Structure formats: C-alpha cells, structure tokens
Amino acid sequence: MELEKRHTLIKEWLAVIKDFIIKELNKERIIERKSHWNDLVTDVDILIENYLIKQIEIHFPGELILGEETADTRIAMNQINIEEERLWIIDPLDGTLNFITSQKDYAVLIAYYEKGIGQAGYIMDMNSYDVYHAFHNQGVYKNDQTFQLKNSDAQLYEGFVAFNSKVVYLERYEKIRQIGKKCLGVRGTGSAGLEAVNLLNQYTVAYLSSSLMPWDIGAATILLEEAGLKSSDFEGRDLKLTGSSSVIYAYPSSFNEIHHHLKNEKNEQ
Amino acid sequence: MELEKRHTLIKEWLAVIKDFIIKELNKERIIERKSHWNDLVTDVDILIENYLIKQIEIHFPGELILGEETADTRIAMNQINIEEERLWIIDPLDGTLNFITSQKDYAVLIAYYEKGIGQAGYIMDMNSYDVYHAFHNQGVYKNDQTFQLKNSDAQLYEGFVAFNSKVVYLERYEKIRQIGKKCLGVRGTGSAGLEAVNLLNQYTVAYLSSSLMPWDIGAATILLEEAGLKSSDFEGRDLKLTGSSSVIYAYPSSFNEIHHHLKNEKNEQ
Asked: Which residues does UniProt assign to the signal peptide (chains A, B) (predicted)?
C-alpha cells in the first residue's frame, strides 16, 4: 500500500532526526536572523530540512516540497496549483525560539497532501519523543498505537485555551482574548505543533493563533480533524495551504462557543 | 546551625512529597471547588498541606503557617503581625489546574520567613523533580549544587515574557500586554513557581501576574532576589506577605524597561 510505504520511511526519517537533535543539544548554535529581529533560524533547523528534502527527492522524485526554511517560491508565488499536486509540507523545528532558549517545547512536523487533501500528518513532540500521526479517514495514532481522545467534546469552561504571542499583545484581538474569561485559564507554548499535541491530550480545549504558515498547520490540521476536532480561520473559513492565516483549532462545543463569541463581536461593532 | 537543621528536614519532606505525588499520578482525583468555578483543589493538595503542617508543628511548635489550603485566618485578618514572627509559607501544589488537566507544569513551594525577611525558599519543579533553594544572602542552589544564572542580566528583546491568565484577558492590562511586543514572545504556564524556575534558567526574562497570594510568591521572591533578579508590584512597591498583589519578577534591565513602559502609560493617560 502506497501510504504504508510513506509511513515506514517517515518513521525512519523521524528516528534519524530525533537522534540528531539529541546529539546537538547543549552545543553552541549558529543562529541567523530571517525576516524580523525575532524571526530566527538555527543550523539544526536547516540541517533537518535539507535531510528531509533529500530523502523526499530520493524516494518520491518530482513531488513538491513546502518547507519552512526553503519554501518553494513557485508555490509561494502561486505559480503552482497545489490542489493538483502531491505536496509535502515540513517544519524541521516548530518552536525554534523555544529550541534556542530552553531546548523544550518544540516539535518536528511532516505532512503529505494529494490534490489539497491531507493524506498523512506527523508531529514528533520533542519533550517526550512521542510521535503522533494520522492518515486520512483512518484515525489518530500515538507511537503507532490507536489513540483515543479522553472525551470527544469539551466546552470552554472545562479546559485551557492557548493563544499565540500576537493574540496576547495586539490591541485588535481584544475580543478574542476575552474568550480567556470563559475557560479554566490561558496558556501558550510558542509551538503550534505542540499546541496540537496539547489539544489531542485535552490539556487545552482550543488554540487560537493570529497568523500561521502552511508548515505550522499542515500536519496539525490532518491530525486534529481526524481526531474529530474543528478548524477554521478567525472568520470561520477553511484553513489554506498557502500564505499566512489566522487559526482556530478546538473541540466542537468550544469551537461553536468561540465562533458565537466572534460573531457577536461583529454585531456589536 | 539552625537553618541547616531546617534545610535537612525540608529536603526530607520534599522527598516524601515527591514519592507521594508520583504514586498518585494517573488516579481518579477528588476535586472540590473553592471560591470560584475555576478555583479548584484536589485531595492531593490537601494531603500534602496537612503533611507539611504536621511536620512543622512537630519540629517547630508555635511557628506560624500560612498555607494555601488552610491559611491561618488570624494572618489573613491581620490579627497577627507577621513582621514579628517565624512564619512558614507553603503551597502544596502550585498549578493545581495543570495538575488536574495535564499532570505537567506544577510545583511544590515552601518558604520560611523571620520578622518579614525570607530566610529560606524552596521550589520543587515537578516536571524534572529538580529542587531549587536559596538561603538569605547565600545564593541559589539546584539539587544542593551552587546554581549560577546563564547571564546576570537580560533585556526584554533577549527573551520571553510570561503573563498570567488575567493579564492576558482583562482589558485594563492593555498596556502591560504591549510589553509582549518588545520581547521574543509571550508565554504562560499557569504556575508562578514554575515561572520562577523559568526565570532562573533564563527561559524567560520577566513574569507579570495581576494577582498572586503569599503562598504563590513566598519562595519565588527569596530565590529570585537571591539570584539577583528584581521584584515589585505593578506600581513598583515591594511585594507583601499578606493579601493579594500584582507581581513583576524580572532581570534588572528588563525590570527597568517594564517600569519605564508602565510609567509612560500613566503619563499618557
């Protein structure tokens, strides 16, 4: 089975990456600035991404690759219709700033899409080294064992909500922040991949981020939808595989509560 | 030496508590509501607090105890002048909601004050089981080894700032949240004790919380001041050992940046 072949390979790649990262811990890092003063990349991000690209090119020549550090500019420029392609979306280190500061709370993310439909998503949680994966219409697995949610649904008052940094400090997200009042408390790890893991384990009931790129959400969306959670942007639209998007991931009841709250915001304006 | 005797006992107590908590993990919990719907306490909090109170009463009869779950109402009602007393301040589980939801990101906190001056502070980080402690004017220790900060100072742009939930969602903290723009990113664990550990390890450069009780800050303040960090409430006043207080803990330069920002807030109003 074609997807099984990919699964076997991806597990091998993740094992190699895990060993590589563990060996690189506690070493001096080469850190470079990308677009902004706080948009940083390390030599570890780049080495992992190059490794994955090489493996994909060897085993699946001709398939498109959208990686955080080497994004195919033809995709970014919309010169390729990804809805017609076989597409890999990878984030070698999701939570690079966490990796730099604490070496905690980061993840490795790999996703594979066909004609715009997520076929396989992988998150390796680098705190625990647990690998979560999902195939389209085949449920969620943790370390290759069937994974069940604690509860298939949860309301806001039953758990924590996580926000990304910009939701916390930008004035225009005032109404979104007030969702924090309706839940047990507000959290934030700085890694969208780990936020997906926290949702799967029901450590949180919702995650809201003002701006995420395809490599932040490619794997998470497959895993969370396969687990029965809901996803959209702040306006309720489906998440896109290109460009930057706001993101809501939540348990169904919390998702409805959040959109009800956001709709009322518009009515009040 | 009197403080050494306390140190030996407290280490024994923490070892007992650690073993007890580990045995209690993954069991059904008895959870009770305290003041609000999201102010919860478990049987584990109460059993640990009762254990500590009993130990203190056996070894140090007559000394005052201010514990989260059984706070001496004479202290809360200001019928006792704690500035004249030998006072224990304990939080059996700091981060109870985290303990309930994820069994991650919580801590055990013990502090001992004489005449209002912190003599000994202990934080047991229950993610790693590391015990951080400090004696007055004798520096900080991690697992009984001398602990040095990575850098004795840090500016906001060099690290993360952590907020508590209310700072994130209450409108009146708009200006405080904007400090998030000046740093690497915003984080929040939901445990003031762990935020102190994150500061000691320079995973963050500042922590701001809208309202903390003496048992949240009793140990942290001793450890952080002993490490050379700064503390105050949002108005720049010294932290109090009674009642609820806003709290800023930060590296010296970040502390100055934050108070400069908050002062400008007042001028702009």
From this structure: none
